[in-house]
Specification:
The protein has about 210 residues and is of the alpha+beta class. It is about 55% helix and about 5% strand. It has eight helices and four strands, in the order E-H-E-E-E-H-H-H-H-H-H-H.
Length: about 210
């Protein structure tokens, strides 16, 4: 496959960054077409042909159109040469999928929207944080961290020695969460996760995919 893939979305998006991390780890050159779902009036009309729910990202390659980040990331891993980003063993792959599901269902909203947006983004924009939202989020965030720590295998990455899609899914979420003042003390209670966070930040893919704003 020689056709250069196209990724649609905004670089500030957690889910666009997950796809960018997968592409970078596979050393795939691609085009990023900006799509801002928070623009006045929402994304442009043409974008709905790529994503019927008008979310980001969407992806095109060699006649294939995909939406949903997990589908995009798994396709990138399986369609392109480079280091494997999914374990071969069924048990390990199941744990990877469970971590990705945990992050989507429980951690993303809590760590990014309820903690980062409320305590970092809103004050930076001169808006008042919702204390009730933050208070309700903190015990849920601790549950997420505890569950993630319990699922983590010994070694530098979440599945142990192999960097996987689980790491790439978690990294952009933690990149926002760790900007909150409460995050560092919370993560300190989970030393293995703290070591993971310090390691993932050194990846070239992580540095190269940092949001521009």
């Amino acid at each position: 496959m020689n056709h250069r893939p196209t990724l649609y979305g905004a670089d500030y998006s957690v889910y666009v960054r997950i796809a960018r991390l997968a592409l970078a780890e596979k050393h795939v050159e691609y085009d990023l077409v900006p799509v801002d779902i928070f623009a006045a009036g929402g994304p442009p009309d043409w974008y709905r042909a790529l994503h019927p729910f008008a979310k980001i990202p969407a992806f095109e390659h060699d006649g294939l159109t995909l939406f949903e980040t997990t589908a995009i990331a798994r396709y990138v891993d399986e369609a392109f040469d480079g280091p494997a980003l999914q374990p071969l063993l069924p048990r390990e792959r199941a744990v990877m999928n469970q971590i990705v599901g945990l992050l989507d269902a429980y951690a993303y909203r809590t760590l990014v929207w309820d903690i980062y947006v409320e305590t970092v983004s809103k004050p930076r924009e001169g808006r008042t944080q919702d204390e009730a939202v933050v208070s309700a989020a903190l015990p849920h965030a601790e549950t997420c961290l505890t569950a993630l720590a319990a699922l983590k295998s010994p070694g530098p990455w979440l599945l142990g020695a192999q960097l996987t899609l689980a790491d790439l899914h978690a990294a952009p979420i933690f990149a926002y969460f760790m900007q909150a003042g409460i995050a560092a003390p919370m993560l300190a209670g989970h030393p293995a996760l703290l070591d993971w966070w310090q390691a993932i930040q050194t990846r070239e893919s992580f540095t190269a995919s940092k949001p521009t704003s």
